[in-house]
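Same chain as my last thread, 64 residues:
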Amino acid sequence: MGSLKANEMLLFNKKITAVEACKLGLVTEVFQDANFQSEVWPKIKEWSELPINVRGLFEYFHLA
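reply #2:
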């Protein structure tokens, strides 16, 4: 995210949609409300089975 967009959000309390947040790189993925549970839980289960050092990398790089 560029500094102009960041300043706009901070100074003017500008709200953005989940899709906009994804385009700006603030989140890595967006799910529809109707599919949220069925799409997210399998990912959480998969990530929970990774070795602990890999989970630390996910947190460090904000991939999860």
